[in-house]
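Query structure, 404 tokens:
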């Protein structure tokens, strides 16, 4: 091979090696900067709420169902044919209003007969009285003692006949009056189960209609026996202040709207169900507009009293496998730590805890789902409104990154 040929062969080889060396040098220069950037991950922004101790209400959310304050099936007390239906089905009636009229011709005749019997019985009274007085004068001058006693018995029998006739008259008057079936209290009627001309019998099983009083109205609630024991323990220890029997109650209706009136406890069942482990509470609510109807399902929020502690919004808390409440906090050096609270109470949309929290601790309320214990965070001051939504303060949000 000539010298010229060797130069032609070696020149491309030298150029290739030079380009490779330059590329390796460039990669070596860039690699440390890239690795350092990967290691220096910026802190995760999270919304925090500063813990403040206070007295907060202890509440319970209980399922319930509405029941009429008074309810009765209207039944006849005498037998006869329905002559008149005097109410509009589904309308409101007042106590004493006429609902049904039963044919009363036979009862009117019975009343007239009873009056005649009274008059007949009363007519024998004067004669018996005069006869007794005559034998009383002659008992020692011709009349015997037996005749006198007989006259006295005759008068007593006449008076008894009058009393019996008057009782029959009163019965006839009552029966005639019972042909008019009236409302026993203010309420709302249901559909009539009879028509004009139908024969009804005294004290029959089937009701002619149903009358319900809707204002006020009962709400039947159920509570677990476990919560009952916890409540009694809290009261005995002095942690819970207030009288649960005076607790105010608010309702949420089936469509999610808040009922505008508050209610009061009416009674508690002094027994626990053997099948469900719950006991029944009955509350009474005003219902002037008849918004709540019997049978409707509702949810009641009951304020049992107040207790001193710290509020943890429900959105910021979770439950572990043992059912204990847990939440994440930001430490002084902005590290994440998880705290567990074995004991907690419901307070509106929050959990109330008494142990494991101190004044000024920073609770993470948003962004905690993607961070673990020990992670570095960038806290941003925020608040949680009554709907459970996190509201970040703009000034604090701007100042926090600057401080970092």
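Result returned for the query:
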């Amino acid at each position: 091979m000539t010298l010229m040929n060797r130069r032609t062969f070696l020149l491309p080889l030298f150029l290739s090696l030079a380009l490779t060396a330059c590329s390796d040098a460039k990669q070596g220069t860039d690699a440390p900067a890239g690795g350092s950037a990967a290691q220096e991950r910026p802190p995760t922004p999270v919304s925090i709420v500063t813990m403040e101790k206070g007295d907060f209400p202890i509440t319970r959310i209980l399922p319930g169902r509405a029941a009429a304050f008074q309810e009765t099936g209207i039944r006849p007390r005498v037998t006869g044919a329905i002559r008149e239906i005097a109410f509009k089905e589904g309308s409101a009636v007042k106590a004493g209003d006429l609902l049904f009229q039963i044919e009363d011709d036979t009862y009117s005749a019975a009343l007239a007969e009873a009056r005649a019997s009274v008059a007949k019985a009363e007519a024998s009274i004067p004669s018996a009285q005069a006869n007794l007085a005559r034998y009383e004068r002659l008992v020692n001058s011709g009349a015997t003692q037996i005749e006198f006693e007989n006259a006295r018995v005759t008068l007593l029998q006449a008076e008894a006949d009058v009393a019996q006739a008057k009782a029959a008259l009163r019965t006839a008057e009552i029966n005639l009056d019972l042909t008019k079936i009236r409302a026993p209290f203010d309420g709302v009627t249901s559909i009539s189960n009879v028509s004009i001309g139908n024969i009804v019998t005294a004290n029959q099983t089937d009701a002619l209609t149903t009358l319900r009083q809707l204002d006020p109205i009962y709400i039947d609630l159920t509570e677990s026996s476990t919560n009952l024991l916890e409540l009694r323990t809290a009261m005995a220890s002095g942690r819970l202040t207030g009288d649960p029997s005076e607790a105010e109650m608010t309702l949420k209706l089936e469509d999610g709207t808040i009922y505008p009136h508050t209610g009061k406890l009416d009674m508690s069942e002094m027994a626990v169900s053997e099948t469900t482990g719950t006991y029944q509470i009955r509350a009474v609510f005003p219902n002037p507009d008849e918004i709540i109807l019997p049978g409707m399902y509702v949810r009641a929020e009951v304020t049992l009293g107040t207790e001193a502690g710290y509020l943890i919004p429900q959105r910021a808390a979770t439950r572990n496998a043992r059912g204990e409440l847990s939440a994440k906090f930001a430490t002084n050096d902005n590290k994440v730590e998880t705290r567990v609270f074995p004991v907690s109470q419901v307070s509106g949309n929050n959990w109330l805890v008494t142990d494991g929290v101190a004044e000024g601790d920073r609770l993470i309320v948003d962004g905690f789902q993607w961070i673990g214990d020990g992670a570095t965070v960038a806290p941003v001051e925020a608040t949680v409104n009554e709907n459970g939504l996190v509201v970040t303060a703009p000034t604090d949000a701007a100042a926090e990154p600057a401080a970092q």
